[in-house]
TrEMBL record:
Coiled coil: none annotated. This is Organic hydroperoxide resistance protein. NCBIfam families: organ_hyd_perox (TIGR03561). GO terms for biological process: response to oxidative stress. InterPro entries: KH_dom-like_a/b, OHR, OsmC/Ohr_fam, OsmC/Ohrsf. Pfam families: OsmC. Belongs to the OsmC/Ohr family. Keywords: Membrane, Transmembrane, Transmembrane helix. The keyword Ribonucleoprotein does not apply. The chain crosses the membrane at residues 30-48. It comes from the Eukaryota.
Amino acid sequence: MAFAPMIMIEDGLINLGRRLGVKESMGTRVLGYLYVIAFVSFIAPLWARSQVEGVGNGWARNQSGTRRDAFGPDHVSASPIQRVIAAVINNSHRSSEFTKTKLNFIHHTSILDLPKMLSSASRRLISSSLRQSAKPKVFNHVPSRGIMTLKTKKYTAEATASGAGRNGTTSSNGLELNLALPKELGGTGNGQNPEQLFAMGYSACFLGALQAVAKTMGKEEMAKKAVVHTSVSLGEPNGQPGFGLSVDIKVEGIDEELLQAGHAFCPYSRALNQGVEVKVSTA
């Protein structure tokens, strides 16, 4: 019965912490352990005393002849714990030399030792829990997606689009292109489209990244012969409305090690994998 108020108090403290904005952490878990340890350390000696005293009273009644076997299975009023204690006593003390003095010695020794045993077990529990919490959760870990921000800006390209959107025009630093929807999307195909420009820019950027990291890997000659093929697809994404993109890059003339190093170094790859800061405002 004593555990019911313990659980109610614990639930109340948890709800109060949530209302105050306290988030679960290593500190809150340790406080929870300490709360349980304090409560059990208080209630366990009292509970143990009642169990052992019940056995002692049964032993006394048995000696006075008021009960046939206070320690045996006929003692139907005994709790399961008391029956276990009685069975241990019966098996250990079959001779007539077992007296109530010995029972009281066992009684008090168990109660005095219980807090020490509980403290030792509690310390092991906390130590084990802290070690488990410190281990990396390899199988359950879900990496969060970060957003890349720039510390400095080395170069900025500017472009302007006008007209009918994907059928309009775009220009950048003297370069002007007439855009047109591809035939696959119901257009004429008589012009460039954003996916083509993206694929061209990605290919050049990826090749530059390969050649840059190749210098640090001793693979410059390999990178000089590399040819990058980039495909950018526009389509309907899974589970979301509108359109989405996918990219497929194939590189000729290099090995897997250089390919992955270039992919990790390429600004375009990092932008797609890590995300970049995009600011939108009215002009």
